[in-house]
Amino acid sequence: METVAQLILKVLLSLGTKRIYGVSGDAILPLMDAFSKQDAIRFISTAHETGAAFMACGEARVTGVPSVCVATEGPGALNFVNGVADAYRDGIPLLVLTGQVETGKLYSNAKQYIDQQALFLPITGMTTLLTRPESVVDVIKVAWQKALGDNTPCHISLPKDILLSPAPMAEVPTITPLAPPSIDGDILSIADLLTASERPMIIAGKAAWPFREKVYHLAKQLGAGIIPGQGARGVFSAQDQRVLSGLGEAHIPPSLRETDCVILMGASPYEYPFIPKEVPVIQIEPHLQQVEHSLRPIYAVGDIQSILDKLIERSGGKNPNPEWQKKLQASHKSFLDMIEAEIDDTGKGTSISVQQVFSLLNHMLPQESIIALDIGEFTHWFDRAFLSRGQQVIISEFWRSMGSGLPFGLGAQLACPEKRVFVLTGEGGLLMTLQEMVTAVRYALPVIVIIFNNGQYALEKHKMEKAAMEPFGVDVYSPDFAGIASACGALGLRVKTPEELSLAMERALQSDLFTVVDILVDESVPSFL
């Protein structure tokens, strides 16, 4: 007789699930048994539950649909928290499944019991406990629809005895496309403001990625400059004269201070502090809860494509300000000249500068590739020095979790096997999820990991120095990452001199193995922090 565990996989398959990330454990052994009896859904066995959650998050970031991760009760569920919190703060759809003790042991002192609903309540859009076999189909459907509709992780606890129960007769759901959400907001006032604006600027976040052609059409029609948010650096090519580099501590485009109207589209809170306070703000978001009321914006929320269509239609007769176009072009050129000058200044010594690495990546990373960014000081250098040619960038924008880069990249590679995936990380971040190298080799994922290795938590060190503190606790013991990669069955390359850099990257690009390029960079102290 079919079990509830088997029915769960059938339901998930009907909803389009192709992979589930996780680690086996006692409470989900019935689910592991169910996996063994089918081959339609692939179980990706990770080294650690944190890696599983981040891999699912990486997949969902590049597909836009819920990805699924599973862990056992107690420690397994707790190990999910960091990755699930990242999805929650960045608005990423996940279905999070955790095993639980038998229903007769709930709320007791049973081994590995914890109130999982209390645990996941602050970091999910929904958390529930499955207590009846008859409820399984409806509970999964509700969680899936909530995750997809609200771009949020949803969590279900699965007691072991329920998983082992005979499956009820139930109709397996089919995929029903969601109707576009209605538009809420004052489109007429937004259109009037855009028409009156002489110096408009668009800050485009990751929500703009699926609609980048329409966003660019609107920008061209308005005569607006475009600043890509940190999670959307690849939305448009950095070589386009309308694109004015990224926004953050590393660089603030001078023309932003001269704008008379800012259009925020899916930008993360990371960008908000850099918006001039006196400038009118228009915010376009999928959901009302993403509107930043402290900016006092005129907003439109709902179906972004429909919002863009309406704004394009209503601003069609606008004549862009020619003087503003000249300033945008000058700002674009001055940024490129600045980056080139910085590279020239740092490219004459015997050590490797971070700017040199990014100069090489600017030319070598394929246009259609995916870049998974970890968190660290190199991330700010990326903001400043990386010139995108249309690559998709994924990053923990709001949660800012170190260690997310490698598993993000592995999940993205599994979802997009036709693309090259690059992970940019520091040695500190990589140490936090280093064990997932084994997962990469196990599943033959040809991800290329590029390590900016300076042996320290450089961002923390430089912030402490700036605050007149004595740097402490900022040294990182860096093992031979290339040697570790080789021991795992991957290609490991260690780069110590500028002369070795280009050759190492060429070897990495030619390899079809999981590859680690460990680059020993100097301590480039950024003046912009």
From TrEMBL:
List the residue ranges forming a coiled coil, or say none. none
Q: Could you cite one Gene Ontology molecular function of this protein?
A: magnesium ion binding
Under the heading SUPFAM superfamilies, the entry gives: DHS-like NAD/FAD-binding domain, Thiamin diphosphate-binding fold (THDP-binding)
Where is the Thiamine pyrophosphate enzyme N-terminal TPP-binding domain positioned along the sequence?
3-119
Q: Describe the location of the Thiamine pyrophosphate enzyme TPP-binding domain by residue ranges.
A: 374-519
InterPro entries xref list:
DHS-like_NAD/FAD-binding_dom, POXB-like, THDP-binding, Thiamin_PyroP_enz_cen_dom, Thiamin_PyroP_enz_TPP-bd_dom, TPP_enzyme_TPP-bd
Which keywords, in A-to-Z order, does the entry hold? Thiamine pyrophosphate
Checking Pfam families in the record gives:
TPP_enzyme_C (PF02775), TPP_enzyme_M (PF00205), TPP_enzyme_N (PF02776)
* Domain Thiamine pyrophosphate enzyme central, residue spans: 190-311
- Give the family per the record: Belongs to the TPP enzyme family.
> PANTHER family, from UniProt?
PYRUVATE DEHYDROGENASE [UBIQUINONE]
What is the protein name stated in its UniProt record? Thiamine pyrophosphate-binding protein
Organism source for this protein?
Heliobacterium mobile
